[in-house]
Amino acid sequence: MRFIITVVVLLSTSVLGTQLMIKNMPRQSVILPDEFGPFYFDQKIDHFNHDINTTTATFRQRYWMNAKYYKKYGPVILYNAGETDAIERYNYIINSTMNDLAQSLHGIMILIEHRYYGESTPFPDYSTENMHFLNTKQALADMSYFINMVKIPTSHVPPWIMYGGSYSGNIAAWMRLKYPDIVFAAVASSAPVEIKTEFWNYYDPIIRYGPMHCIDAIISTVEQVDQILFSNDSDAKLELFTKFGLSGLKHDDDFASWIGYPLGGWQNILPGDNNNEFLDFCKIFDNSTTPVEYMDVYAQYIVTTVCHNSGDAVCISTHNPDSPLYTDMTLRHRAWLYQTCTEYGYWAIAAPDGYRSLVSHKLDINWFQRQCQYTFGHNYTIDDKIFNCHYGGWNAMPTRTIWIDGEYDPWRELSVHSLDAPMRNSSNAIIIPHAVHHWDFYSGQYTPESIKQAQMQILRILQGWLKHY
């Protein structure tokens, strides 16, 4: 899931927002044999006849398929690649938990690209008028139509199992909820199914599980920063911006977003990774013991690591509505931004007063909503309650659904394993100790034992269900 804190400024990266930095699962430089694809499916642009001009129109939806393990009566494991070009994840077709399940269950694995991402784009650009068919309802209907119409090398009607992680984990769960007649089972990993626009809780697991000295140092620095930002001392503000190498900025909220940049590294922590960017960041405080020292080393980190190549303030400001970041309709980041602006929010803002905050209180919902307005020309209103009522949120109880989360995952705060969510059937609910974002996807001989145990539990549950198909 894209971590949304520093948006549009870094288009090659991303948050759950417009593109900050998220390492998805380990990517391998692999060229797949032609037998796996890509293949293309004629997908409907509009499944619900909202527009007479698109009633029969289609686009080519890209997918890959691995059927080499298939035996009669085996299932199909369908993975939707979610909010990215599927080429970034196509190696999953031969190296992932989904592929391992297909092998163990003598089934087929299919990886399909989400509409409006990669090559599966219905229109030549991402202008606002072309984005109307990018929504949850259409995306789920894509999967239904694909399952019903795609030609696969089976001699029977197979059970379809949706597997997904992060946003695609939502898709897996929602498909089982909304299309139980065609989706036999679902595996939803790190799925933030509880929609929340003001997602200040994103930082709670970092505070809860992060290195204590590092967390205290960050909070101390943020408190010092806010004392200055909320004052009327313009000279002190200029000195602060200069200290962090951001003297070209004119707006407090942009400054707040940039100094929060290192926090995106938490969800990027990988199993057995000793070179994680967040833990490396925390090391800067090792020899510091006072608030002044905390701010000094934090500022130096931002200067040397984050913005040292951004000499032009236009490149790092979100306040210019004429910036190409908003006006260039070909920028691919617009797809996920549109989804967050219109349906999901997921905006990682500062905690309310009375709570410890890892980011400045200048980073509020207005900072995100302004970018939606500048990009798409509309002030969208997301009604969390209506969306969660329709798709269940924490209260969604689709049968034959496995829920998986990492204990330390920031997105767990919106998953069914949130401490605020109703209790789940323990046999179908898996929390991987000390894990972060959809770690269950990892496959191979070096996979940690805790992940292997979760994968074996998934396999046993699915085997039990399939006996009754």
UniProtKB/TrEMBL annotation:
The keyword Glycoprotein applies. This is Peptidase S28. Keywords: Glycoprotein, Hydrolase, Protease, Signal. InterPro entries: AB_hydrolase_fold, Peptidase_S28. Belongs to the peptidase S28 family. Coiled coil: none annotated. It comes from Jimgerdemannia flammicorona. One of its GO terms (biological process) is proteolysis. The keyword Glycoprotein applies. One of its GO terms (molecular function) is dipeptidyl-peptidase activity. Transmembrane segments: none annotated. Residues 1-17 form the signal peptide.
